[in-house]
Amino acid sequence: MRQDPLEQLARSWHSNAHAWTDAVRGQQIESRRLVTDAAIVRATLARAPKRVLDLGCGEGWLCRALAAHGVEAVGVDASAPLIEAAREAGGAEYHVRSYAELVSAPDQFGLFDAVVCNFALLEAELGALLAALRSTHRPDGVLLIQTVHPWTARGEAPYRDGWRTETFAGFGAGFTDPMPWFYRTLESWVATLSASGWRIAELGEPMHPLTGHPASLLLVASRAGA
Hints:
226 residues; alpha/beta; Rossmann fold; 8 helices; globular
């Protein structure tokens, strides 16, 4: 019987939590070490936010990085083991919440100047979540999304939306469950944000210094009509 990708996704982040924490804190992921971590910190700080929601915060590295610059950060993740690791490291306020729980009460943690989704939007259906996030923003707030670059990450598969599998090969030891994730084309990202009430204000392609290829896609969006 075919496994539900959402159930498998949740199970993967639960069982791989310790391995992921070690990989991130040990800087074992080359693209993050060389490019993408600094890119999302720089993009967030460029908006001069006072209060930031880190959606899908994992073990909390981004919250800690922002806190070091005087930003009040709130981290949210559906994986209890990852939130436990984040709380042990400190530096911010952390909560265990699924995306469905955020959709039902998007303003439960107050309002923010920025919401950051750093490689955290992995599901096929994002419309309800993205629409709900509009309620978490102050009037001039922004949504920052960093994700895999659609062209660089296309691999051998056709260039169209669809489920893919992350095996975590090269991320270090201890990963036990592959992770399903939903691949989107650039056109799909633009359409999804627009349909959810967002307007793309900036689009960036942080470059890998060794390959010369884009290491990620970085989108900055504001509420449409704001």
